[in-house]
Amino acid sequence: MSPYIVILSTGSELTAGRSVDTNSGWIANQLFELGWKVKKFITLPDDPKLILSELQSLQSLAKETPVLAIMTGGLGPTEDDYTLETVLKLTGKTSYSVEKAKLRLTKIYESRGKEYKDILPSVFRQTFVPEGCKTLDNSVGIAVGFIETIGEKSHLVCMPGVPSEMTEMFKRRLVPELKKLYPRENLHQKTKWLWNIGESLFQNDFIEPNRDEFFQEAEWGVTANRGYIKCIFQSTNETLLSTIIQRLEDTYPKIISDDVFQFVHEQLLKEKLTISVAESCTGGLLGKKLTEQPGSSSYFIGGFLTYSNEMKSNLLGIPMETINTYGAVSEEVARAMVDGLCRKTGTDFGISITGIAGPEGGSPEKPVGTVCIGIREPNGNISVHRYLFPGNRESIRENASNTALFLVYQSFKN
Amino acid sequence: MSPYIVILSTGSELTAGRSVDTNSGWIANQLFELGWKVKKFITLPDDPKLILSELQSLQSLAKETPVLAIMTGGLGPTEDDYTLETVLKLTGKTSYSVEKAKLRLTKIYESRGKEYKDILPSVFRQTFVPEGCKTLDNSVGIAVGFIETIGEKSHLVCMPGVPSEMTEMFKRRLVPELKKLYPRENLHQKTKWLWNIGESLFQNDFIEPNRDEFFQEAEWGVTANRGYIKCIFQSTNETLLSTIIQRLEDTYPKIISDDVFQFVHEQLLKEKLTISVAESCTGGLLGKKLTEQPGSSSYFIGGFLTYSNEMKSNLLGIPMETINTYGAVSEEVARAMVDGLCRKTGTDFGISITGIAGPEGGSPEKPVGTVCIGIREPNGNISVHRYLFPGNRESIRENASNTALFLVYQSFKN
After folding, report:
1. Residue B40: per-residue pLDDT
2. What CATH number has the domain bearing residue A197?
3. Which of A209, B248, B260, B297 is 20 to 30 A away from residue B125, measured at CA?
4. Peptide bond into A66 cis (omega under 30)
5. Do B153 and B295 belong together in one domain?
6. A394 touching B (Cβ < 8 Å)
7. Cβ within 8 Å, pair B295-A40
8. Which residue of B34, B288, B329 is the best one to mutate when testing the A interface, meaning the one whose CB has the most A CBs within 10 A?
């Protein structure tokens, strides 16, 4: 049986709206992939009374049903970090300092110089956890996480609020513990990406017609992103899952993919191919995406940000006449950009992007959202693709960069 | 007296982590600027039982203290929109259709053609509100918002979940009502940024020593970001606020700034100056940041992504000897990069970034996080700054790009 799951985040910066809580959604998403649904998110300011009262409610609820409460934040070194103190009040326990964490903290602070060394005693509290609880090591930051029991089959998990620390702790330390605490039937999951299609259209064209056949015994979920939707299917019946994916591939042969970012990264490494970019409207976003993964220096050698027409002409050797005749946002210029790029860099793949990110600069023939992407493949072929992306400036730039990577994916697949 | 404020958002896409709730934070931020603090955010799936039970808790709480609950979502036309139904159950009232909204909806749907006209009856429910409540017109979409009384000085506000509809309704319709329902004194606010300083150090060095003098009559809050912390101060006493800012400037003369992104954008436009970039470890992130604002094409002309040493040498004319002698991540190479850059582009400002974003590639002399940033100012001066940024790959790249913009800010200020 699944526990009643609540995700609790604390931080006055959240309830003041100065910062957006991305932790709760991320955790819910991870739990969904494990087959669990969340009943409630709660966000509280750094106020020990409010936090304690909420934890007491959860403790009461745990008398009726198994509860899993996952809490983030409030484990830091400052006076407004109340999580440990509140949990101790709740359980009546004492706390102790985790020796390993204390040594690690000392080493880190000493390496930062004297002013940090001086405040060391005031930050040791981050290494304390309630006695007798299960600890969760922090391999990114300092604060130690822990799992406390709050009733029969009921647990309170406390993790730091810093996303990079929390996500690492969740995946490496917490998930194995959760699987022990709440064992369940093995759930299979498959994920596919569909490009440049809306969520409602997908639901209408794929989910509805297949509802009776597939979705009595399987769950589905969609995450909409810039340029693609991620479709997640889950079932304990693995054969059914394969049938669903086959139907999906038959329905959308041209726009379906796996995780493009991961695939392109791995394939470039594996085939020892190189890539370079020439970006106009995205201003560097594609290059940034191509260098997100460690090891990207094996394939990404660099590129040109040609935001102005002069830069397109000077750096990539595009005749001003071409730009003036067809416009900077045109198939012709995208082709010339990627051609000039690969002549300069000599890479196997080349990508060029030129478009109108808006909000100004649109025209009836080329409205805001018009983007031309050129791709040069390792065999020397150049093709150019024109799109009209929806949304605002940020959305159009994200769409364009993601779609460019999809074109590299397709080139590998064909 | 301020009410106990709760923000409630509903939507199964939120609790499954497929979509991030930006409404609650936005509302909290607006309320914070009006001088109100939010006690709690709650997010629930589209489950009428869970929603009703939460509203009943709020109704009970309202017997003890004035409550203001602001709820978004669940007012749409589909079967999983439960807000109105749940509120009617809570109060035992009936509902009626707001005539003005009904006429508006009919006009909009009729203009969209036959298939929309046919489904018109099924969407009328969006025009219904509880009898006797205060209605909130929707000038962007269709669903009508409302304010229901749930106890003495206690109110439940229901608004649509679509951000563009909600924000417009909040600002135009709700704020005037709130000011009538909960009158209070005028609050002033000032924000400053501090660079490359941790939150705990700031609290130790500034808040603690000034607590008695300043923070009995003023509120403070800190948002930590990559490279900077944003410090917000609020008070009804405007003179006190100016004194606090003056003390802050005296304490941190070298690392204080206003909103760097906005300032750099406006100043480049105003002084008609141009800028270009040469990025290594950030892979395009700085260019992306410089082109986030519409109108950036007036000053950002482009740049070079020189990820590999060959690109640094070929595109920017840096002798391979310099790279081999000092290493690609060095003050010498950062200087040669920005010098080569501005020779090629002829811009007023030039920025170069070269660093070790990790997780591999660090050494005892140059650990992961070492970043050298070169800046060429309009007067031709070149300076190079070396940093050791904390965190993971993403964090180091964000830090480096933000700090580069801070250097431009400082150049303008000096």
Report:
1. 97
2. 3.30.70.600
3. A209
4. no
5. no
6. yes
7. no
8. B288
What secondary structure letter does DSSP report for A197? -
Strands B145-151 and B67-72: unpaired
Q: Are A199 and A216 within one domain?
A: yes
State whether residue B29 sits within 8 Å of chain A by CB: yes
Two structure tokens written together for A38: 């969340």
Domain C-terminal end among A117, A148, A181: A181
CATH code at position A318: 3.90.950.20
Between A404 and A392, whose confidence is greater? A404
Interface-testing mutation among A4, A8, A18, with chain B (most B C-beta atoms within 10 A): A18
Query: Is A41's CB within 8 Å of B41's CB?
Result: yes
Q: Contact at 8 Å (CB) between B194 and B229?
A: yes
Say whether residue B19 is in contact with chain A using an 8 A CB cutoff.
Answer: yes
Judged by a CB distance cut-off of 8 A, whether residue B65 touches chain A is: no
Q: What DSSP designation does A110 have?
A: H
Among residues A181, A197, A231, which one ends one of the domains?
A: A181
Residue A18 banded pLDDT, cuts 50, 70, 90: confident
> Do B80 and B166 belong to one domain?
yes
Q: Do B272 and B161 share a domain, yes or no?
A: no
Q: What is the pLDDT along chain B (414 residues), one digit of tens a residue?
A: 689 999 999 998 899 888 889 999 999 989 987 878 899 999 999 999 999 999 999 999 999 999 999 999 999 877 778 999 999 999 999 999 999 999 988 888 887 777 677 777 778 889 999 999 999 999 888 899 999 999 999 999 999 998 889 999 999 999 999 999 998 777 888 999 999 998 878 988 999 999 999 999 998 888 778 899 999 898 989 999 999 999 999 999 999 999 999 999 999 999 999 999 999 999 999 999 999 999 999 999 999 999 999 999 999 999 999 999 999 999 999 999 999 999 999 999 999 999 999 999 999 999 999 999 999 999 999 999 999 998 889 999 999 999 999 999 999 998
- Residue B90's CATH number: 3.40.980.10
Mean pLDDT of A242-254: 97
Q: For residue B318, how many C-alpha atoms fall within 13 Å in the half-sphere facing its CB?
A: 32
Nearest to B307 among A224, A291, A311 (CB): A291
Supply the ipTM of this predicted assembly: 0.81
Choice between A110 and B202, residue whose per-residue pLDDT is larger: B202
Q: Note whether A315 contacts B: Cβ–Cβ < 8 A.
A: yes
Which of A44, A277, A307, A343 should be substituted to probe chain B, the one whose Cβ sees the most B Cβ atoms within 10 Å?
Answer: A307
d(CA A375, CA A324): 22
Same domain, B86 and B212: no
- Taking alpha carbons only, the member of A366, A413, A408, A357 closest to residue A383 is A408
Instruction: Name the token pair of A45.
Output: 């300011």
Tell me whether residues B32 and A43 touch, CB distance under 8 A: no
Which residues in chain A touch residue B285, judged by CB atoms under 8 angstroms apart? Answer: 284, 288
Instruction: Say how many domains are in chain B.
Output: 3
Do residues A272 and A390 share a domain? yes
Q: Which domain holds residue A79?
A: 4-181
Q: Looking at the partner chain, which of B24, B25, B221 has a beta carbon nearest the beta carbon of A12? A: B221
**Alpha-carbon gap, residue B47 to B52, rounded angstroms:** 9
Q: Which two tokens stand for residue A339?
A: 């051609």
Q: Are residues A43 and A88 in the same domain?
A: yes
Residues B195 and B279 in one domain: no
**Cβ contact (<8 Å) for B283 and A291?**
yes
